[in-house]
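Notebook entry, structure prediction.
Reason for the run: the old model in the group folder had no record of what sequence produced it. Starting over properly, with the input documented here first.
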Amino acid sequence: MGEALVNICLDGAFACKVMLFMGLTLILLPQMACKTPVESKKINLPFGMHHTYQQSGDLHIAGILSQIFLSADRLTYKKHPLDEMESDVINFLASWTFLASMKLLSTWNNFIPNYKCDTQNKPVAVIGGPNSDVCLFMANILSIYKFPQIAYGSAPPMDDKNQAAFVHQIFPNEEHQYMGILQLLLHFQWSWIGVLYLDDNPWKKFRHTVLPKFSQRGICFDFMLEITQITFLSEVETMKEGLLKTANLVKKSTANVVIVHGEIQTMITLRMLIDIPEYHGDSRISKIWIVTAQMDFTSVPFQRYGDLSFIHGALSISVHTEEVSGFHDFLKNKKPKSDSQDGFLKDFWQQAFLCLFPNSSLDDHSEKMCTGEEKLENLPVSVFELKMTSHSYSIYNAVYAVAHALREMPSSVFKRRADRGKQNLQILQSWQLHRFLENIHFNNTVGEKVSFNLATGFDIINWATFNNESFLRVKVGRIDLQTFPNIGFAIHDNAIVWPGRFNQERPFSLCNDHCQPGYSKKKNEGEQFCCFDCIPCPEGKISNQRNMDDCFQCPEDRYPNKNKDFCIPKYIIFLGFEDSLGTSLASSALLLFCVTAGVLGIFIKHQDTPIVKANNRSLTYTLLLSLLLSFLCALLFIGQPRKVTCLFRQTAFGIIFSVAVSSVLAKTITVILAFQATKPESKLRKWLGKRTAASIILFCSLIQVTICTVWLATFPPFPDLDVISKAEEVILECNEGSDSMFYCVLGFMGFLSICSFISAFFARKLPDSFNEAKFITFSMLVFCSVWISFVPAYLSTKGKYMVAVEIFSILASSAGLLGFIFFPKCYIIVMRPDMNIRKQLIKRKH
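New structure, fully documented this time:
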C-alpha cells in the first residue's frame, strides 16, 4: 500500500486494503470529515464522517488512521460547525480521534457511547496511527475499557502507565532510530548540521534529550529551528513571515545536512518551506535532508502538480520493509465496482483520476466521467504507490499479530467451554487478548520475525525524483538493532544519489574545511567546538591525519618532510673513508705519517752526526715515534664507530700525545740543565743524563695512563646514535661515556703543553747555534693555539664535522711539532752537512 493513500481525504479505505488483502474483516473509522456534511447529519454526529466502512465477521479489528485533507478556512464558529466543515483540513483534530474511539464503544450507526447492543460488531483490537497523537488520544478513551491497541507509527508520549499498558508499539524504539541517524552522520563525517523539528512538546523533548547525545559524539548544530505544523491553508499567508524567516536561516546556513524530525504530514510543511518560489526567487534551498521514519511523502491534491525535486537526494530512515507476495497484484486488480460499499475507494478514484462518478457528492467541476476501469499502475507515484511502504508493512504485521494472538487463545480461554460443541467467539472480551498480544512472536509470510519485544531494524532510503511526477525510494543501507546497544550499520555509498548541486561527489557538512595533514586545529573562542582554525605544525612535528587536535613528534629515527604530513627515515651519517672529508683527512694523516717516517729515517741514517746526537738522541727517536703513532691514531676516528675503536681512539690519542709532549718537555728541560750545569760549582750536573729525561716521560705518561684506565673502568666510550642534533640525520658516533674524563685527558695534555711552552720560552735565547729551545717555543705555540681553538670548535659542531675538528687538531698540532722541531735539523743534515760539526754546537758569547 502506498502511504499516499493514507494522506488524502479518501485514502482511509486503502489503509484498510492492507488488512483486507490478508482476508481479515475489520472496521475502519476515519478520523476526519470530508466534504459532504449532509450525510454526516444523517447519523447526527457532532463532527460528520463522510464514510464508514465495515464488513461482517466473527471478530473485528478496528483501525483509527490519521487522515490529511484540505480546508481553505479556519473554523469561525459564526455558523453551524457542520456547515463550516465543507472544506477539508490539513492535519487532524483530537476531537475526531475521540469521536472515532467512542464510536467503537457504540452500536453501529447509533452514537451512544458505552452502549453496544450488537456484540457481533464488537472489535477485539484497534490499530492506530501513524501520528503519535492518534495513539495518545485513542488511548485516553480505549484504555479505560482495556482495549488492546497497536500503534504502528510514532510512539505516543504516555505518562499514564495504566494507558501505556494497553498500547503495543510495533514501531521500533525511537532511541534506536536516533542512534542510527548518529551512525549515519559519523559515517559521512557530517559534523555540522541543522535540525528542524515540530513545535509541540513531544518533539521538543527530542531537542533536549537526544541532540545532546549527538554533541557528545562530535556533532555541532548550526541551527535548531521549530517548525509549525500547517493546519489550514488560510494560515499559510499569516505564517508567511515565520516561514520566510526560517527558510532564509536554512538557506544561509553553511550546514549541508539538515535533520527533519516530525510526523507524517510534516513533509508538506517542509515542501512549503523549500518550494514556494516567492520565498526564494530563482534560488531555492538545496540541502541533504535526513528524514525520520515518522515522516513520509503525502499526496494531498494541491501537491499533485508540484515539483518533486525538493526531496531529490534526501536520506530517510524507514522501518525495515520486505515485499509481500501478492500485494502488488491485489492493488492492481482493485476497482470501485469490486466493492460497492467502500465509499472511500470511489472518492479516492475521483480525486486520483480527476474524474467524477454519476451522482458524486464531491463538489468538483471536472467534466471527465469515471469508468471505474482506470488502472492504478498508470498513476504517478506522487499520487499513488503500488509498493508497500514502511507504514503499510507495520499495519500488515499488526494485523497478523492480532490474528496470531487470537489463534493462541482457544487453547486457554475457550478450553473450559469445549463441552458446548463449538467455541463461542462472540463472548470474547477484548481485555482477554491483551496478554497474548504482549508475548506474541511469529514469523510473517515473508519469513521475518515479528514481536512487540523484538528490536526490529531500519532501512536507509535514498530518494530519487524524476520529471514525470514520480520518485523512487532506493534502499541503500540498513540499521540492524538485533544486538542493541551495539548497532549494526551498513550503507552502500556508491548507490546514493546526491542533490544536483553536489555533482555526485560525496558531500561535506563542516563548520569549516578540514585541517589537512600538516596542520592542527586551533579552537576559536566563543564558537562551537566544530569550528576551528587550521595552523601549520611547528618545526619538528607533523600531523598525518585530517583534523588532528595537535601535531606530534616523529620517532627518533625519522624527521618531518617539507609538508609536515609524514616522517622520513633519517640518514645515518658518520665520517667514513668514502666521504670526501674523510678521504682528505685520511690522506693527510698517511702523508704526514710518511713524512715523519722519512724524518726518522734521516735521523737514524745520520745518528752519529753531532746534530742528531745533541740533546739526547733517545728523546728524538721517542718524539718521532710518538708523532708517527699520533698520525696513525687519527685514522681511528675515521670510519663507522665500533666498540673497539670507540674504546681506544680517545685514550690512545691522549696517551700518545702525552708521550710526545712530555718528550718535548724533557728536551727543553735537558737544554736548560745543560747550560746551567756549565756554571762553576753547579749542583745540576748530577741531573744531566738520559735517566732524567726518561723519568720525565715515564712519570707524565703514567699519569695519563692512569686517567685513561679510570675512564675505561668507570664510564667507557661506546657507539651511540645521536638523533637530536640534526633534524634530518642520525649521527652514528662514539659516546665518550664521561665528558669529565675526556676533558681530564685534554686538561692534562694541556698542562704538559703549557709547561713545555714556558720552559722553552725561557730557554729560547741560550747561546747555542743548535739550540732547540726557540724551535720548541714556536712548535708549542702552534700546539697550544691549535688545542685552545679546538675546544670551542669541537663544542660548536655536531656529527662528522665534530670528529673532523678533532682529527684536524691532532694532525695540525703533530705537524707543528714535526715541522718546527725537526725540519730545521733535517735541512742542516741534508742540505748543509758543513754545519753538522761539533764546533758549531756551542757559540760563545761575545
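Summary: Residues 662 and 697 are 5 Å apart (CA to CA).
The old model has been moved to the deprecated folder.
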